[in-house]
């Protein structure tokens, strides 16, 4: 361990400021990925067994933000993997254009939401929300731990 003793998240973020912006981004992205890993695993465990395509498609994706200094991530079904699994299973992808918004969407676009919240024909099978509620505090601990180790490692490297 290094001489730097980091107690809380505020201390961690302040100690990150001594490094370059590029390194800061890498550490924050790595911390988010480390923290989200448990939520992703728990969400996959919560998906009903007969929904294998949905289970395979759940993952962490980085989202573009309007403000360049913000980094956004989402845990959700990855659309490309979901569509690939459905097509492999023999389902046909159909497209429609919304009369209100003009956006083009497929019948697979909102599948994860339909499972999570249910529809008029199907009861809800929540898988993401329970995973977040169960693993939330643990994910914060894992992110903090990752950041602390990464900062200590970089400080040790700088001393050499």
3D architecture notes:
This protein has 160 residues and is mainly alpha-helical. The chain has one domain (9-159). It is built from 6 helices and 4 strands, in the order αααββαββαα. Helix 1 (9-16) crosses helix 6 (128-159) and helix 2 packs antiparallel against helix 6.
Concise description?
This protein has six helices and four strands.
Keywords:
single chain, 160 residues, mainly alpha, two-stranded antiparallel ribbon, 6 helices, 56% helix, disordered N terminus
Quote the distance from N terminus to C terminus.
14 Å
Query: Which class do the helix and strand fractions yield?
Result: mainly alpha
How big a fraction of the residues is strand?
A: 5-15%
> Which stretches are low in confidence, meaning pLDDT under 50 for 5 or more residues running?
1-7
Number of strands: 4
Query: Count of helices?
Result: 6
What is the topology?
Blueprint: H1 9-16, H2 21-46, H3 52-57, E1 58-63, E2 72-77, H4 79-88, E3 95-97, E4 104-106, H5 111-117, H6 128-159
Antiparallel strand pairs: 1-2, 3-4
